[in-house]
Amino acid sequence: MNVEAFETRLTSENALELFKDFDVIVDGTDNFQTRYLVNDAAVLTGKPNVYGSIFRFEGQTSVFWAEKGACYRCLYPEPPPPGLVPSCAEGGVLGVLPGIIGTIQANEVLKVILGAEGILLNRLLLFDAWTMKFRELKLRKNPKCELCGENATIKELVDYDAFCGLNASVEEELAYEEITAKDLNRWINGQVDLQIVDVREPHEFEFASIPGAQLIPLGQIVNRISEIPKDKTIVVQCKGGVRSAKAIGFLKDAGFEGRLINLKGGITAWSDDVDPSVPKY
After folding, report:
1. Number of structural domains found in the chain
2. Would you say residue 180 has pLDDT above 60?
3. 56-91: buried (b, 16+ CB within 10 Å) or exposed (e) per residue?
4. 96: in domain
């Protein structure tokens, strides 16, 4: 077996050149911008894309092959808002899950190479490691897909950071108040009238939390806006400050009129600078 390693980051500038000499592309990436890049480059070079992704206890696998069926954009035309979906570091992944999903991907690669029938084409295989159950969703090619549809408009690779909303300017990123963990602790001890809103996931909150914090996961923040008091200073908090900044943006866009402040560094900074007994993850 000959292994050829490329010690370079996959980008819009080199993806087509890297993909052109290979028969199958295997996507084992962990972020949306690279998934769209891999998919688009695979479609533009006519390659099958053996896709896999994991999160917590769940994984999914499929074979996206535009010449024969759906591509990744047929399933997910647009990425979720940045910060809405926790990263693997924030949300966690069961240790054995990458091996399980990776093995399924390897199985599909062999079938594609052998020209076997029954590959995961136009099928999304879902696996729940906690309940040990498999489910399958049928996919179909979207005739209006901007990449592989009948009147496709995407003819070249784009800036995928920008496509996924990751190129916000410094001014946009800092368009909110921030407070350090030490200053927040002084406010709490000084009995400042405030409410801490924690936008992490429930399992994160159970593992480590700031006393008195109100849990409203980021994905629910707009729908539960009525639960956030407008007559108090609201300090929004997450693990490191990214999701909480997004939550502030969502709340402002939804018309929330109260004062919103982001906890700089999130609960990690709280553990480092205020209460070391709060576990870090």
Report:
1. 2
2. yes
3. bebbbbbbbbbeebbbbbbbeeebeebbbbbbeebe
4. yes
Q: Say which of 71, 74, 88, 148 is annotated catalytic.
A: 88
Report how far residue 71's alpha carbon sits from residue 66's, in angstroms, rounded to the nearest whole number.
Answer: 5
| Greater model confidence, 2 or 183 | 183
Contact assessment for residue 264 and residue 245, using Cβ atoms and an 8 Å cutoff: no
Residue 233 in any domain: the answer is: yes
- List the catalytic residue out of 71, 145, 148, 238: 238
Can you tell me which residue has the tokens 């000499």?
21
Q: Kindly state whether residue 98 falls inside one of the protein's structural domains.
A: yes
Nearest to 241 by CA among 188, 203, 184, 189: 184
Q: Are residues 212 and 260 in the same domain?
A: yes
Q: Is 88 a catalytic residue?
A: yes
Instruction: Judge whether 164 counts as a catalytic residue.
Output: no
In the prediction, which pLDDT does 166 show?
66
- Over residues 44-77, the pLDDT tens digits come to 999 999 999 998 899 999 999 999 999 999 988 8
| Domain coverage including residue 33 | 15-163
pLDDT band for position 215 (cuts 50, 70, 90): very high
Same domain, yes or no: 148 and 267: no
Torsion over CA of 207, 210, 213 and 216, rounded to 10 degrees?
-40
Q: Do 157 and 194 share a structural domain?
A: no
Please check whether residues 83 and 119 belong to one and the same domain.
yes
Q: Are residues 130 and 249 in the same domain?
A: no
